[in-house]
Amino acid sequence: MHGSTPFRPAARAGGPPGQEGPGHPDRRTLLRAAAGGGLALTGLAVAGAPGAGAAARATGGKVRDLTGPAETGRFAAPWTDLGIPARCPDGSMLLVCGDTFDGGGVGGPDWRSPVGLRSSGGDPASLTVDGSVGGGHAVGLVPEGHEGGTTAIPSDVFTVGPTMYMHLMRGVIHRTHHSDLWRSDDNGETWQYLCQWPGDQYGGQFQQKTYAVADDGHCYVLSTVFNRDVTSGLLLHRVRQDALGDPAAYEPWGYAGGAWAWGNPPTTVTAARRWGEICFRAMGGGYALSWLNMAPLDLRAQFFPLPTSNLFTTPERTTIVPTVPGRESGNAVAAPYGGFIVPGSTVEDLHLAVSQWYDARNYRVMQYRITGLTA
């Protein structure tokens, strides 16, 4: 691995929504326990029953498990989440995962984050993990010692020409110290540090970032607070693709003096809410945004023609709804989160990397195919 980072910390709001609160250990407690060599997961609640939908509910179902003992155990990564998919310059797919453990379940030995799992097939129809960065043992992609329960959680991975980029949120969970950006010129095998942003920039609303690679020479960047319990706006920036590693080159979009314009102080581009993971992509001549919605709990998507489209009025489509273990069918998932768009998706045929965690052995990344979004 090339490069280094000035700080070791990282952050993560992982785990199933609805499991934190009185009587149930939160993610910070779990990770600190793992750092100490043990993890008590007894008594965890299960995500709640389906809540009210958004504008329209899609149809669809599970395609396959992408991770788990049978799928990724041979890479010492039986327990992992997120799996943000990015098509590599060589045409394969890299799934960048978050907190990863070996052994008998979450909190087992060999805690790493992030790790890279590979699918030699780059099409959604052939998305199966058959390799990892590190060969037979998936390695941590960046230096992260997890001292004091810190971790390095990816919020996005994307490709511009021959170069891949990875954005990480770092610090103790829910207390993001900073976020940083890394690049790889060898299909994700090694990563070089580029830059970082303070965790309190824009009141924390620049912690979790996701990048849409446009055909106009820019990347468009949406960002939120990285804490599911905190209400946050959704901010929009643009940056030239040849200046991704220069924090000063990120130009905000905001409303001031009666008009929206680039260079105004950033203002939220949609209603403030409690956000989980977010994923912003150029797709089909327009743009797609997928996210974990916290109230009501579900995964949602919007499709719009321009990065600056009015998201206040753009319909929200429900892609995944929550259920309880044993009652999963169609697009109802127990303890869902994530919802990262698989490259090659279309509005009519949307593939998502959906995470799940409700006990020590039910912690995985799954592929879901969603249809009916244009109905």
UniProtKB/TrEMBL annotation:
Which chain positions lie within coiled-coil regions? none
Quote the SUPFAM superfamilies the UniProt record gives: Sialidases
Q: Where is this region: Disordered?
A: 1-29
Per UniProt, residues of the DUF4185 domain are 71-369
Q: Which PROSITE patterns match?
A: TAT (PS51318)
Name under which the protein is recorded: DUF4185 domain-containing protein
Q: Which organism is it from?
A: Streptomyces gougerotii
